Amino acid sequence: RGELAAWASRREGSEYAPDRQDAVAVVGEALVRHGERALVASVLAESERWQAVRFIFMAATGLDRIRGQLALRLGAREAAVAYFERALRWAEDEALPGERAQALLGLAVTGRDPVAERAAAIAEAERLARAPGLALLLDDVAAARSAIGDVAAPGAGAPISAREREVLRLVSAGRTNREIAVALRISRHTVARHVSNALSKLGAANRAEAATVALRAGYLSD
Known about the structure:
- The protein is mainly alpha-helical.
- The protein has helices at residues 2-12, 17-34, 37-49, 57-73, 77-93, 97-110, 115-129, 137-147, 162-172, 177-184, 188-202, 207-217.
- Helix 10 packs across helix 11 (188-202).
- It is elongated.
């Protein structure tokens, strides 16, 4: 709390945008947990005024994720969803698995989607967090799962939906989530949920394995 107060004091004395905004991604967790409501509201409002400033990609996804957490702290769910979705797009575009996992967790705890879809997003975040160097995110996964009632993602053997079959056909053709989203006219976040659900239902560890299992099971035929 003392360091957060010192940061807030330095922030007040700087007019340089990176000092006032990029640093939010660094102190963000402390700000979300320990920042006074007035400070949280001030930082979030100011971040909107600096929206025209372009940040490096890694800073951008981290900044939007923190913005989402700050918005949730203030009870602004729709704003939080928008921030987390933007963070997810940045993370996917720049292939940042850790940030992608955190954005998925953020979206899950907003409560916007049905519980099963939120559980699937958490399951995908857990899969990402098990990659080398990301194990610390498993604590965030556990916290998110607890927040939605510890509901499990769809398990192996659950029926594959018609939309999931469409997504699997495109996955088997080597399409990226962005390309699938364009082809099916849905968001990349929705595509990611369908892919995660399909992997879970097929008991597959990755997209290539899912395509192989789906082909053998006859899910790729018209």
